[in-house]
Design brief:
By secondary structure, the chain is α+β, with helices and mostly antiparallel strands. It is built from 10 helices and 4 strands; from the N terminus they run βαβαββαααααααα.
Length: 215
């Protein structure tokens, strides 16, 4: 049995969780906040990052590594095409969304979601980079109806948890959703993916975590 560690507000935790649900892999959850310094945690995730998993063989950290492991170890209900090039295109989208969209927008989260502030120079640099990267993303994404084409794939688990965050963060900081402003009509797509039982579970658990008493 796999144990998934993290908490339901983390987008990367939710990506892994949705994959587990979609692939119908039995698992349990252990609520864990990031940056733990507990030795037992560091044995599984040396930087104390979430998500991480415990498998019968041992621990794994880094969400991209975990996703590759799950696809290889549990081939039923595949989320990556069998064709090598098609599989690479799905993983290309995953990497692009994570690295060139979400990681860039993450610089805004302190102000967008946590009551902090971001220096104007950082906001200007992030906006410039996101505008460029969103244009590039439009060349890769299909939304036909799924982000990689006509089938639900691993890229949809990544997009479902990340695109709304990017939209909300940019709207909060810049007064406009940079994805929508660039012509990425992602909201109908999010609604489509949101009809899946796995997505509904993700949303339900995230709401419960956000409602959890602080302290």
């Amino acid at each position: 049995m796999i144990t998934l560690y993290g908490f339901a507000v983390s987008n990367y935790f939710n990506i892994v969780k949705q994959v587990l649900l979609e692939k119908q892999i039995p698992f349990t959850e252990e609520r864990m906040l990031p940056r733990s310094t507990d030795d037992a945690v560091l044995e599984l995730s040396p930087l104390g990052k979430i998500p991480f998993i415990r498998t019968p063989e041992g621990g794994l950290c880094e969400s991209a590594v975990i996703l590759d492991y799950l696809e290889a170890q549990y081939p039923a209900h595949p989320l990556v095409p069998a064709d090598a090039f098609a599989a690479a295109k799905v993983r290309e989208l995953c990497t692009f969304i994570n690295l060139h969209l979400e990681l860039v927008a993450r610089e805004l989260y302190a102000q967008a979601f946590f009551g902090g502030s971001v220096p104007d120079a950082t906001k200007d640099a992030v906006r410039k980079q996101l505008v460029r990267n969103i244009e590039a993303f439009k060349r890769l994404a299909h939304f036909a109806p799924y982000v990689a084409g006509d089938s639900f794939t691993l890229a949809d688990c990544v997009a479902f948890s990340n695109l709304p965050l990017i939209g909300m963060a940019t709207r909060a900081v810049y007064g406009e959703d940079l994805l929508a402003a660039a012509g990425v009509d992602y909201k109908p797509y999010i609604k489509l993916v949101g009809e899946r039982p796995s997505a509904q579970k993700i949303v339900e658990d995230r709401k419960a975590e956000l409602a959890r008493p602080k302290g």
